[in-house]
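Quick illustration, no need to memorize.
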Amino acid sequence: MDKQAVEAQLCQLPISQYAWIDPQTIEFSDRIRYVCEHECPMYGTSWACPPAVGTVAACRERILSYPGALVFTTLCEVDDIADLSAALATRAPHEAVTREALAILKPHVKDVMALSTEACAICEHCAYPGAPCRHPELMFPCVESHGIIVTALAEKEGIDFYGGNLVTWFSLLLFRE
């Protein structure tokens, strides 16, 4: 893959930071999934969320089957970082950037899997669990739903978490060349 050509296109997007990484360096934890199960209202309601995405062990195995990955962030300012609904309302622009980054990467690789911020808001009502996902090509499961410790990943790769009223959104594009 010509990473310079990909990077030249990525630089046209409102990406704050990015890094090419080896998926083998990603840390996983069942604790992250515990938070999904006990604190997220989307748990068990979407194909993009646990338990539909599989166990953390299954997610880890799937992720580690990819030899390469691109992690990137976007930033969005909110009036009050403690207002969760306001912070979550800024997710859509990040998802749009994720779709653009995916479109840039796809012609350069054989296979790609995207993880982002979604608990999936594509359909008004998810088909889970009674029927298959209606739009699997558009749905990006949440990075954390796979048990990935995003803070550890950011620290290893020198990616900043900004304070104040800035929301830092992460996406991970796993690929095979």
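The mean pLDDT is 91.
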